[in-house]
Design brief:
The chain is mostly beta strands. 14% of the residues lie in helices and 35% in strands.
């Protein structure tokens, strides 16, 4: 019990415009409403490569990439598990 479990956590790549977001509500058809760390609410879509592999639900912390041509929309590229979210909160990454 003395050793801490090593948790690998992917962080957003700011140079690509990635940011943290929290899933607010499920809209169906692979779309969700997210609240991003910059304070904006966006309509995000779950790409096909994630849709079948990862189940996203309300309250999940995700990484999104806002669309460059339509700033109120984004793509979800990553979902965090509960231990990863706890690690992010302990290390001060989540500022919602």
């Amino acid at each position: 019990m003395g050793e801490e479990e090593v948790i690998r956590v992917r962080l957003p790549d700011r140079s690509k415009g990635e940011m943290f977001a929290i899933v607010e509500s499920m809209l169906g058809a692979g779309h969700v409403k997210v609240r991003c760390e910059d304070g904006k609410e966006r309509l995000a879509r779950i790409p096909g490569k994630l849709r079948k592999r990862i189940w996203i639900k309300e309250g999940d912390v995700v990484i999104v990439v806002p669309w460059p041509f339509q700033n109120d929309r984004a793509d979800i590229i990553w979902r965090y598990t509960n231990p990863q979210v706890e690690w992010l909160e302990e290390h001060g990454y989540l500022k919602f």
